[in-house]
Amino acid sequence: MSVTVKMVFEGQTLELPVIFGSEGERAIDISELRRKTGLITMDPGLANTGTCTSSITFMDGEKGILRYRGIPIEQLARQATFKETAYLLINGELPTRKELNRFSVLLNDRSLVHEDMQGFFQNYPRASHPMGILSAMINALRSFYPELQTLKEEINMTVTRLLSKVRTLAAMSYKISRGHKVVYPRSDLAYCANFLNMMFDSPVRPYEIDEDVVKALRIFWILHADHEQNCSTSTVRIVGSSRANLYAAISSGMAALWGPLHGGANQAVIEMLNQIKERGAKVSWALEKAKDKNDPFRLMGFGHRVYKTFDPRAKIIKKVCHQILKKRKLSDPLLDIAMALEEAALKEDYFMERHLYPNVDFYSGIVLRAIGIPTNMFTVMFAIGRLPGWIAQWEESIHDPNWKLCRPRQIYTGPKAKEYVPIDERG
Ligand code: ACO
Q1: Mean pLDDT of the chain
Q2: Which residues are CB-contacts of 419 (< 8 A; sequence separation ≥ 6)?
Q3: Which atom of ligand 1 is nearest to the CA of 302?
Q4: Ligand 1 centre distance from Cα of residue 302 (Å)
Q5: Beta-strand pair 57-60/71-72
Q6: Contact 212, 324 (CB under 8 A)
Q7: In this structure, are residues 222 and 80 in contact, taking their beta carbons and an 8 Å threshold?
Q8: Cβ atoms within 10 A of the Cβ of 425, count?
Q9: Average pLDDT over residues 357-381
Q10: Of 378, 369, 247, 230, whose CA–CA distance to 304 is shortest?
Q11: Any residues with Cβ below 6 Å from ligand 1, and which?
Q12: Mean pLDDT across 267-278
């Protein structure tokens, strides 16, 4: 039996169908609304608007649940590799051993980038932010490796190319920014270890792979691999909806991720914690600023559009944070400040009334610092992790029979029609 919602407007009754998801979520289908009533809906920030159906990721913000293709994030973080997780998101199922081996071969074969691309890096101003560079480089890949997107096998080629080369490009940008020799990918190393080696190996000090560091990075990337229709993923879908190529869509997603309210928050958290440390301030200083409505300051790494309880990823990354510091016998004063800040915030009515809890970015920066990643590369690390999700969402959207060019509407509030005034007659 179909369920509908009745809407009455100017004496006209309209029945709008309700769509149900497999986990019981409900949406009013308004696709006929404007045609039948002349009305549109208004939803700044799209907080109440679904733009697609999707079978990739499920999250319940009230209960703090996150699942990729049905599998809880906790199980993936504990048992899966990042490569398996990427395969799962993109192909819908975990790979068999044979499928995983084939996937690994493809990733290895496509890990090198055209030598001419190094010229781009060399000519970027040294102070450029790595996110700006990476986003531009991903777009530039299209010129070196024409996109093939008709057959499944061709799409796979572009997809594995992107998944593999993004690591090489990110590590390359770091090496070149330091004026160091670029380290090439190695086929004997797995996905995470290969990236770490490209980042940190040097002719004067060979990089020793530390399994604890590899594990921390693996979990960090798995936790970031997808998060349904967030700002950057929606950007990828919107750009893809014009049938722009995959590289352009991913590059736009990266630009959206860069912002401090989204993926840039991991860098902003460390900057905030550093600010507290350098001022010798108490955490109450940051809390008071965050509560002050006349101050634009926000507690970075706190709050989330969907999670109104603990972000399940934050719980996992907090544990990883403690483990990696302990195993590497490191102490980080920023961790002490972060823990004190979290404890104090969770006692404040302001944060509790607004359901503001630590999100994944609150502790992830400290994990990345422990691995040795420079602060301005944090969002790049997030982008590498998010790539499988962006690809899966893009692929789902281009095959969705109901997917249309994204083109929202507006309510115009500007002047009514008026005459053009020649320049000499203007007052
Ligand atoms: N510090 C202080 N107050 C906050 C914070 C914060 N971090 N986040 C939200 N609030 C307050 C707002 O001022 C607002 O208060 P009001 O109702 O009195 O006006 C209320 O909480 C609701 O905030 P909104 O901005 O409407 O919530 P929204 O869902 O749009 O924002 C967001 C979510 C952008 C993540 C926000 O919580 C924020 O800015 N957090 C800090 C940045 C951050 O950590 N971003 C990473 C998110 S996770 C990710 O993208 C990977």
Answers
A1: 93
A2: none
A3: 7
A4: 7
A5: unpaired
A6: yes
A7: yes
A8: 6
A9: 93
A10: 230
A11: 45, 261-263, 265, 290, 298-305, 354, 356, 359-361
A12: 94
